[in-house]
Amino acid sequence: MAEELVLIKFGGSLITNKSKKCSPKYEVIDILCAAIENILDMGKKVIIVHGAGGYGHIKAKKWKISEGLILDIKNEQYQAINEIRNDMEDLNEIILSTLLKYSIDAKSHSPHKNGYGLGVEYSLNEDFYQLIQQNIIPVIYGDVVDSNTVKEFGILSGDDLCEIICNSLKPSHVIFAIDGALGLIDDPNLPNGGNLIRNYVPGSEIITNEVLNDVTGGMTLKLKRAINCYESGARVSIINGNNTEMILKAIRGEDFVGTEFSNNAI
Questions:
Q1: Distance from C-alpha of 163 to C-alpha of 140, rounded to nearest angstrom
Q2: Burial class (CB in 10 A: 0-12, 13-18, 19+), 146
Q3: Which of 131, 176, 190, 264 has the fewest CB atoms nearer than 10 Å to its CB?
Q4: What are the sequence ranges of the domains in the chain?
Q5: Residue 192's pLDDT is what?
Q6: What is the tens place of the pLDDT at every residue in 120-134?
Q7: CA quadruple 46, 156, 229, 247: dihedral sign
């Protein structure tokens, strides 16, 4: 399986307007799902992970969901958790229905219904792996999940899921499809907005900025999880998902605009 499995992460800022509650980018979702059809036509198996964007981060930040249970606002927190979970299922359904438009057999795997634990300690249950064995594309996403610690609940990032899946299934290629940049940028504070890092050696220093409404660590966490995916043996690329041709070029092994992880600086 490993030599033909592609794990692709749709960033929350890519598929939603992160500054607005529950505002999907339908056209972007459509071109991403069309790209999935092309990847399948290459003979690859695919796993889709997607972020929350405006469907999760705004309410999660307001009610400090990432901090776990806070007694003074616990009622508001539990109400927000239910709303976020429902909102994420709505976003997930938009992706599933768009995949169906392209005759792609996919099924949602809801984290809060199918496991527990925070970060990479989350337990991914057997049903997820059975979907892959049945040649059904699992669509899994960042969510609010329960924890058996004193926190009681917290945020499971889509980037966390990428590392978890890499450790268990060893995909050949992991693609982080992002918004707002062509790939990793050396220093977004430079007057020109920073320079694209075409070839990134894990451990090399770059500067990352805080992302509006983010509650999962933004690019800093993404980079950490991407490095761990690379060190698990996967090829890792970070590409602007608004240009899906670059994603397809990367998978085909052609030259593309984006960031490729490598042990050798160029």
A1: 13
A2: middle
A3: 264
A4: 2-261
A5: 84
A6: 999 988 899 899 889
A7: positive
Number of H helices, E strands in the chain: 9, 10
How many Å is the Cα radius of gyration of the chain? Answer: 18
* Cα separation, 50 vs 179, whole angstroms: 13
CB 117 within 8 A of CB 145: yes
pLDDT at 3 over 70: no
* 2-261 fold: Carbamate kinase (3.40.1160)
User: One-letter amino acid identity for 192?
Assistant: N
Instruction: Say how many C-beta atoms besides its own lie within 10 A of residue 235's C-beta.
Output: 18
pLDDT surpassing 60 at residue 178: yes
Residue with tokens 């707002």: 180
3 vs 190: CA distance, rounded Å:
39
Whose CA is closest to 14, among 248, 259, 185, 238?
Answer: 238
d(CA 222, CA 157): 9
State how far the Cα of 24 lies from the Cα of 13, in Å rounded to an integer: 10
User: What gap in Å lies between CA 113 and CA 85, rounded to an integer?
Assistant: 10
Cβ atoms of 118 and 151 closer than 8 Å: yes
* Contact in structure between 140 and 127 (CB atoms under 8 Å): no
Helix/strand/coil for 261: strand
Q: Any bridge partners for residue 109, and if so which?
A: 140
| pLDDT for residue 225 is more than 70 | yes
Nearest alpha-carbon partner for 14 in 152, 175, 179: 179
Residue 22, token pair as written in the block: 């529950």
Residue 1 reports pLDDT greater than 50: no
